[in-house]
Amino acid sequence: MEWTEPGVFEVAPGVHRIPLPLPNDGLHTVNVYALDDGDGLVLIDSGWALEAGETALETALGALGHGFEDVRRFLVTHVHRDHYTMAVALRRRFGTKIALGAGEQPSLDRIVGRRRDGFRDLATWGAPHLADRWRAVVESVGEAELRDYEEPDEWLHESDLALEKRVLRVLPTPGHTRGHVVFLDVESSLLFSGDHVLPHITPSIGFEPARPALPLGDYLDSLRLVRDYPDLRLLPAHGPVTESSHARVDELLAHHEDRLTATLDAVRAGTGTAFETARKLGWTRRHRTFAELDLFNQVLATGETAAHLDVLVHRGLLTSEVDDGAVRYSVS
Ligand SMILES: [Zn+2]
Questions:
Q1: What distance in angstroms lies between residue 30's CA and the mean position of ligand 1's atoms?
Q2: What is the pLDDT of residues 128-177, one digit of tens each?
Q3: Where is the Metallo-beta-lactamase domain (predicted)?
Q4: Count of the separate structural domains present in the chain
Q5: Are residues 246 and 274 in the same domain?
Q6: Which residue of 54, 210, 227, 230 has the lowest C-beta tally within 10 Å?
Q7: Residue-wise pLDDT tens digits, 100-112
């Protein structure tokens, strides 16, 4: 694991960004934000339950004059393991309370109940061979994942959350996952955006155990929802702090309109399933071909394409029908 970003960075009065290492090759770091709150701390996101991350977090809290026992509460933006599982691990030792968006309940139920059947979607998307390979991966991580996950203490709904020193607006922003929430501190002009708005990458859409019907439609609505608030300093879960939530939301909305156009053009050129369409599109900022992606990213890319196709159906530009277990799209 190569990681070069240890430290504690004050990003606003009483708010510190703590980057923690991740084992993936794509995302190097997840940011935990430590908020001064009375004589303790509230943490937004927790990191992935890994020894290297725990050591880095303990060192960072130590630099702030605190230990794990001073963390009063974890406010977690979504159920993905790089955000949620360290909170569960620390709760077992310190009893720290964990809050998670109420919309994550169906996905957490599936994880805890060992009903990880997301690979079935791949057959619907026209990629049964990917489904077989992906099932093996899901089953191999299944037991470890089960150990890392437990229910939160509190399910978050849209509300104003009064901490000792500040009020955080809890805003459900479904899309990246169905129960994703962001936290706004409007008085201090801060948006703790989780993975909803990231400065350098476009978050994956609907990669979760209980995928909703129209994850990209939800995501675009959630981007517009955040755009309706004042322009705020962006404190993302991956990447650096940047100055304008509006500027990045506008870029993300434009990006997805471009992708929708490219997706529609691919169907016009004769593709039928999400898998066939994904193979015609460029991927990542470097425009790699689908074949160049590893299995995990092929699965993401296929699901991403299905999300775009379903929005095009919702907009009346495509129609869909099920043919031999797979959804096939055609121009209306
Ligand atoms: Zn993440």
A1: 7
A2: 889 888 888 877 776 777 788 999 999 999 999 999 989 999 999 999 99
A3: 29-238
A4: 2
A5: no
A6: 230
A7: 999 999 999 988 8
